[in-house]
Task: inverse folding
């Protein structure tokens, strides 16, 4: 009898525990296994995804620029880089991208992030509160898709854009969905609609230029439309961007002897982004042809701010807006002035076009003792001459940032006949103006898995 | 017929008691009355009351013990006590612990492996887990992974996710490092092998369960004291055993590369990049700063140096481990207790220290009748300290250290190694900067690394008997761990000098320097806490009613394991007076060398992880006539897995088992068989990938320096299609004892079939989720045969005991859903991937077809579309599908085990353990010119390369080409030419013991004493490959060095 209370107590404990186990499980198991991990929900998480600058702002596609004509590499340096990049430099028709991890991977991983941000915002509701973040996600998606179209599609031409192959459009996070290539018209329609919506949604002032602002979206829209040949629209949007932010850097105020004279996030930057640099055009490997340097006037400060002379007399590029040996590829005001000038010269007033160009060049030339720029205002004689001058300034101003490749493609569409030449140990490699290889091959492993058609070789 | 318990009411009852040699009762021993051929079953305390009418013969048998026959006269009513003798081998300890209960092996339908104290104590060492791999057939140690060795139970049953078995110490899984456990506290280790055994542990047991049972006090045992001490010496590793190219060959390669312009540099960034000492001299020669004679002398100097000698001379010493243990145990009325103290003091070959102190107190109280209280307290404190750098750990960004690197000049002064910048660049820097050179010889002296661990583990158990056979049990464990890590980088360390210089701001006008990272030491601290608890309630019911035996167990448990870690960094420390400085972590400063803006690294982090489990389980067995046993178990687990729909959180598991004691059947007449039991189980278990998630999840690694807000990365991609891996396992086994106990053992056949196997499947990375993802890729079946034999014999006073473990394992893929059949996904993987070919082993070794070397160029030749080809991109790309690959065989040993012998003569004994692995293949390493040029990774095959026409007759190593072709290297590396057999036989350890006991040696001042000498890692006795590769170390890492240990144990 004496044992009875203890026995009862033990029974009760058991019973209590059984009850506790049975009914408290769900709550007990709701604890997060890792506090640093969340299921994305809400505006803050979507913004955090887009703020991950190591991928969103530092993986722009360099394969186009690496195939362009602003640099060369010595045979010895070429021999020291990976084979696929050697092939890229010499315009081979296939195996330009290492399987598994390459520009295509970066591009679509970042599109996935933008889509995840958009889906997160959809779930969060609050369309007004999420407008700015939604605008950023749309901007990123359009920026990425446009870069892809520049590298892996033939040039946009309204005449045949419905029959030319475009990019696979990924508009949600379902990675199991099979990939199919849209046509080029659909591809650009997507880029334009994303960007137009972004312009409406984005705020004028962002916390940092790593987040695209309204001016950046207008600037990118102008760039896309310039490429498409929609000069009127491009003009309007370039001006729209400049109205919001039109500052220019005065090169006379820079220390031209510095290793990298132009600082990152300077006043011209509307959207901060950089290339994932392909090894052939890396700062240590690449040289600028003397013929390019010869295009600059002696009083043009860009000659000393953008270039350095190496120990052996060769010329290297040091004018990146990244302030380092990486290459800026974002959106900046100097590009918008050049777009405004070119489009104005093509479809608007020539005088006006000249003024936009002068505004930029004044800030690029040496100043006299009284502080006046030595730049001589452009004289407008005829449309063709002015356009040629503006295009020349584009080539001299927008180096090593992905723009030159786009220009070669669109100008060749309009009959410029620009060839890209390489010479390696006496062997000549030539990319003809109408060459199919202006659309680079989609990575072979992607083609194998997805069954998408490869670009014609 | 077998009757249990009571005899009839009329007639004299004879009481029978069955014990082992030490007087421990043997539960459920079988007693046969020979005259009528009736068998009876003793109860759980080995007792039986039986009516014996007149003269008769009793035959008592118990698994693992020799049968005893005795003539009795029932009319005397005399108590009959049987002391049974063990028959052979390891069957002495017949209780196995599942962590939930201790059951006689006899009674269980499940498959267990058992390692007892005697076997464990043959080896000496700090960590108990290190001793296990060679002691049981079920365990296999796989060293091929990058993360070190991995112990597995019955092969891998999952392909993805953690593959480590669950380790249980006493009642609960051990949360923390197993090296905390004092090996002298371990009584036995049980390995749960089949589904019936593991189903009790549920979802966590997918990779098998290892149960460590610690020593406890026992009621009725006298006071005892024992003391042990041991010392182990570890040899310096054999650096020349690594397959490296010679320094002279490295010099030749670099001369060639320099000649070809590989190191031409003109831009400031290129000139800043670090280069090897040879390239530095060649550059100076080119500039005219070094003349031809000086160059020739320097080159010869490099040819005569060897970095392996430098490491061996300056960094490696013999390692020394010491271990002391003291154990006290005793009992009083209603109390049994044991306390032990252990201390380890290790110093590795690299001078890294490890000290561990354990205090273990356990007590068993029986304050009231029917109530048992057990208490356990385990305190562990350890301190690990860093040592000298080992081979391969002195890293430079440009790849490996050149083979001819020297750490000290002829005068003994430390030499600089180009680490982040070329020495030429550093020479031209202003003197105001700190010395920016890196000196491996003394850098480690300026960095103090230490990690301190405190662990308190408290166990409380209550057992209350409620009624006959019914017992309630409540177990609780609370474990609190703290780890304090400290890395103190002194001001003289390269780490600090590099940071300070990098953030030094040079005023262009005045030439003055300002420091953004202050002078002084940098202290990184990490503070970890790991509280965990387990709570379990369980009811046990055991009854023998007539012919029926029933053992039931049901319970529920919950557990939480939480880890929090906090890391911080302090700059400008003076460790003597504990002063420090502030830095601005938000400002971006131009870095000295590159000019790029950079943030001062703050090295701060916080994390908190919590694992929670809730489970309910049932386990029951029914025995009829002591011969037929049926068992069943079921379990449901729930966990707080993340991103999983709540109804997927729970996973039901279960098993069924049967057992037949054939040896006890009357019709079983084979006289040479002492005992034979057959058993079988069938169970279902499942694995889930801890990282699987129905939703995408985000991880927040840090904050953006641009926006100063947290940024997020995708932690895992939404993968709602993923299902549990289901594994069904059938186990058929036999325990036997033959020839009067001369041979004993068990044999098991098992068959696994798994569906929805996880595997990394290649996906179209246009989807944005990377190039592969975990999917349910296929189905497999596997079957194994395990044999454990123990035998004992005596000859001329020499006792011989031998144990043979043998496992034959084969599996194959029966379905495969992955659409990708490119050969490239399946070849040349050092970490095996799931085979994509139905009918082949789950982990198979495949290679590209090899057509020899091109006799003109020495290029490797492959096969593309049926013809010889050198289109390497196509061969390793789309051109080869999986069915065009050469299939060699399994990547896992298909026949493996251990062979142990112990010879004893008088007080001496000698044990040798051999380990063998057969029937498998692996891809060996060879020279890759791509790795050689880019990372200085050489290989001894370099000297056997094709150099001139005709060489292709006797070598398969391709010629050196420049520029390199990575696809050519990749094709060769994964071709038939490099696949070799992994078969080998290894002498794992030798152990000699001299044991004395006061009973025999009257002069002995103590009760027993033993002296032991051990030799470990004695090396390979035979290997199938002729390349000198140790198949256990296919990636060419250093093999475990030879060690020798001496130990003393006494019992007072």
Result:
């Amino acid at each position: 009898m004496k044992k009875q209370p203890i026995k009862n107590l033990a029974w009760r404990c058991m019973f209590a525990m059984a009850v506790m186990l049975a009914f408290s499980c769900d709550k007990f198991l709701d604890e997060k296994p890792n506090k640093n991990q969340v299921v994305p929900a809400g505006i803050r998480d979507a913004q955090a995804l887009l703020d991950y600058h190591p991928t969103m702002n530092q993986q722009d596609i360099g394969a186009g620029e690496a195939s362009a004509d602003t640099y060369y590499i010595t045979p010895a340096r070429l021999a020291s880089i990976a084979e696929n990049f050697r092939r890229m430099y010499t315009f081979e028709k296939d195996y330009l991208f290492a399987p598994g991890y390459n520009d295509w991977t970066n591009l679509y991983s970042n599109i996935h992030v933008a889509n995840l941000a958009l889906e997160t915002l959809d779930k969060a509701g609050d369309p007004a509160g999420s407008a700015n973040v939604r605008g950023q996600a749309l901007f990123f998606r359009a920026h990425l898709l446009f870069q892809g179209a520049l590298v892996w599609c033939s040039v946009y031409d309204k005449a045949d854009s419905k029959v030319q192959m475009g990019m696979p459009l990924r508009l949600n996070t379902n990675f199991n969905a099979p990939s199919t290539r849209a046509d080029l018209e659909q591809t650009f329609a997507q880029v334009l609609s994303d960007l137009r919506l972004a312009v409406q949604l984005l705020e004028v002032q962002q916390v940092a230029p790593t987040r695209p602002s309204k001016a950046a979206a207008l600037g990118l829209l102008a760039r896309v439309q310039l490429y498409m040949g929609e000069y009127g629209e491009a003009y309007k949007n370039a001006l729209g961007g400049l109205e919001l932010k039109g500052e220019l850097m005065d090169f006379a105020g820079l220390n031209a002897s510095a290793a990298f004279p132009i600082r990152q996030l300077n006043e011209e930057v509307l959207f901060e982004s950089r290339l994932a640099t392909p090894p052939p055009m890396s700062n240590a490997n690449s040289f600028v042809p003397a013929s390019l340097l010869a295009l600059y006037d002696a009083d043009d400060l860009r000659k000393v701010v953008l270039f350095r002379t190496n120990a052996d007399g060769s010329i290297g590029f040091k004018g990146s807006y990244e302030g380092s040996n990486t290459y800026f590829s974002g959106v900046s005001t100097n590009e918008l002035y050049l777009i405004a000038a070119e489009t104005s010269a093509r479809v608007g007033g020539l005088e006006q076009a000249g003024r936009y160009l002068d505004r930029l060049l004044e800030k690029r030339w040496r100043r006299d003792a009284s502080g006046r720029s030595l730049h001589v205002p452009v004289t407008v004689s005829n449309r063709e001459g002015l356009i040629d001058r503006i295009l020349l300034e584009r080539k001299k101003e927008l180096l090593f940032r992905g723009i030159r490749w786009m220009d070669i493609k669109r100008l060749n569409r309009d009959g410029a006949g620009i060839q890209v030449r390489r010479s390696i140990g006496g062997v000549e490699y030539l990319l003809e103006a109408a060459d199919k290889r202006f659309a680079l091959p989609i990575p072979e492993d992607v083609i194998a898995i997805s069954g998408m058609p490869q670009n014609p070789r | 017929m077998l009757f249990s318990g009571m005899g009839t009411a009329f007639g004299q009852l004879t009481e029978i008691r069955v014990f082992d040699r030490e007087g421990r009762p043997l539960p459920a021993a079988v007693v046969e009355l020979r005259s009528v051929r009736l068998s009876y079953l003793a109860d759980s305390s080995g007792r039986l009351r039986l009516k014996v009418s007149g003269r008769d013969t009793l035959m008592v048998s118990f698994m693992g013990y020799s049968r005893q026959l005795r003539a009795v006269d029932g009319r005397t009513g005399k108590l009959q006590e049987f002391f049974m003798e063990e028959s052979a081998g390891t069957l002495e300890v017949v209780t196995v612990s599942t962590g939930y209960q201790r059951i006689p092996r006899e009674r269980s339908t499940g498959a267990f492996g058992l390692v007892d104290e005697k076997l464990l104590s043959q080896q000496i060492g700090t960590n108990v887990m290190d001793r296990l791999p060679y002691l049981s057939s079920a365990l296999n140690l796989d060293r091929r992974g990058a993360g070190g060795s991995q112990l597995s139970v019955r092969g891998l049953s999952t392909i993805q996710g953690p593959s480590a078995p669950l380790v249980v110490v006493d009642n609960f899984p051990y949360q923390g490092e197993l090296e905390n456990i004092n090996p002298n506290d371990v009584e036995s280790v049980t390995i749960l092998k089949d589904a019936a055994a593991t189903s009790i542990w549920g979802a966590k047991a997918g990779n098998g369960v290892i149960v460590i049972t610690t020593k406890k006090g026992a009621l009725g045992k006298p006071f005892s004291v024992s003391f042990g001490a041991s010392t182990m010496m570890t040899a310096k590793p054999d650096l020349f055993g690594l397959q490296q190219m010679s320094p002279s060959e490295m010099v030749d390669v670099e001369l060639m590369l320099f000649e070809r312009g590989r190191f031409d540099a003109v831009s400031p960034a290129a000139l800043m990049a670090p280069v090897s000492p040879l390239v530095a001299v060649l550059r100076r020669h080119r500039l005219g700063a070094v003349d031809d004679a000086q160059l020739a002398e320097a080159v010869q100097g490099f040819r005569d140096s060897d970095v392996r000698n430098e490491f061996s001379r300056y960094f490696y010493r013999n390692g020394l481990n010491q271990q002391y243990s003291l154990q006290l145990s005793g009992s009083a009325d209603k109390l049994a207790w044991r306390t032990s103290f252990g201390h380890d003091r290790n110093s590795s070959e690299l001078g890294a220290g490890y000290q561990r102190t354990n205090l273990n107190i356990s007590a068993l109280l029986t304050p009231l009748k029917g109530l048992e209280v057990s208490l356990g307290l385990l305190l562990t404190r350890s301190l690990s300290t860093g040592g000298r750098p080992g081979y391969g750990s002195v890293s430079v960004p440009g790849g490996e250290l050149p083979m001819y690197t020297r750490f000290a000049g002829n005068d003994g002064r430390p030499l600089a190694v180009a680490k982040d910048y070329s020495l030429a660049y550093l020479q031209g820097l202003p003197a105001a900067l700190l010395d920016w050179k890196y000196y491996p010889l003394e850098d480690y002296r300026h960095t103090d690394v230490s990690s301190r661990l405190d662990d308190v583990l408290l166990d409380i158990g209550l057992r209350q008997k409620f009624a006959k056979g019914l017992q309630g049990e409540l177990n609780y464990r609370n474990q609190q761990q703290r780890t304090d890590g400290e890395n103190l980088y002194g001001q003289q360390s390269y780490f600090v000098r590099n940071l300070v210089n990098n953030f030094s701001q040079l005023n262009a006008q005045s030439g003055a320097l300002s420091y953004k990272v202050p002078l002084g030491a940098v202290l990184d601290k990490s503070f970890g806490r790991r509280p965990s608890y387990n709570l379990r309630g369980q009811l046990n019911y055991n009854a023998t009613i007539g012919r029926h035996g029933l053992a039931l167990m049901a319970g529920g448990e919950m557990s939480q394991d939480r880890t929090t870690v906090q890391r911080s960094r302090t700059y400008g420390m003076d460790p003597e007076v504990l002063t420090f400085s502030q830095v601005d972590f938000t400002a971006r400063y131009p870095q000295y060398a590159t000019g790029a803006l950079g943030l001062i690294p703050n090295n701060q982090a916080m994390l908190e992880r919590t694992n929670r489990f809730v489970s309910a389980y049932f386990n029951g067995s029914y025995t009829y006539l002591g011969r037929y046993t049926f068992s069943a178990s079921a379990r449901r687990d729930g966990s707080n897995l993340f991103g999983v729909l709540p109804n997927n959180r729970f996973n039901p598991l279960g098993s069924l088992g049967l057992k037949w004691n054939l040896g006890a059947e009357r019709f079983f007449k084979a006289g040479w068989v002492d005992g034979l039991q057959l058993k079988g189980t069938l169970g279902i278990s499942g694995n889930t990938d801890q990282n699987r998630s129905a939703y995408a999840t985000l991880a927040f690694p840090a904050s953006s320096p641009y926006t100063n807000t947290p940024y997020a990365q995708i932690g895992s991609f939404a993968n709602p299609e993923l299902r549990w891996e289901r594994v069904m396992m059938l186990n058929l086994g036999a325990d036997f004892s033959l020839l009067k106990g001369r041979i004993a053992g068990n044999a098991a056949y098992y068959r696994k079939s798994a569906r929805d196997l996880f595997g990394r499947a290649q996906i179209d990375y246009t989807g944005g989720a990377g190039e592969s993802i975990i999917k349910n890729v296929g189905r497999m079946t596997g079957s194994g045969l395990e044999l454990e034999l123990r035998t004992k014999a005596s000859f001329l006073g020499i006792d011989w005991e031998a144990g043979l473990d043998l496992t034959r394992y084969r599996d194959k893929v029966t379905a495969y859903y992955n659409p990708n059949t490119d050969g490239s996904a399946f070849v040349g993987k050092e970490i095996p991937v799931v085979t994509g070919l139905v009918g082949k082993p789950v982990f198979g070794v495949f290679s590209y077809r090899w057509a020899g070397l091109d006799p003109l160029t020495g290029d490797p030749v492959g096969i593309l579309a049926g013809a010889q080809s050198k289109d390497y991109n196509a061969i390793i790309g789309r051109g080869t599908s999986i069915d065009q690959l050469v299939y060699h065989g399994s990547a896992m040993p298909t026949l493996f085990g251990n062979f142990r012998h112990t010879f004893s003569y008088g007080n001496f004994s000698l044990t040798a353990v051999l380990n063998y692995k057969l029937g498998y293949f692996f891809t060996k390493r060879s020279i890759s010119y791509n790795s050689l040029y880019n990372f200085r990774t050489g290989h001894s095959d370099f000297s056997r390369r094709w150099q001139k026409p005709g060489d292709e007759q006797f070598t398969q190593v391709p010629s050196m080409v420049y520029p390199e072709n990575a696809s050519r290297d990749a094709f060769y590396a994964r071709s038939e030419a490099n696949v070799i057999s992994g078969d080998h036989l290894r002498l794992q350890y030798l152990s000699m013991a001299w044991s004395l006991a006061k009973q025999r040696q009257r002069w002995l001042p103590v009760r027993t004493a033993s002296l032991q000498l051990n030799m470990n890692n004695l090396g390979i006795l035979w290997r199938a490959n002729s390349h000198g590769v140790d198949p256990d170390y296919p990636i060419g890492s250093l093999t475990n060095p030879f060690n020798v240990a001496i130990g003393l144990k006494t019992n007072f």
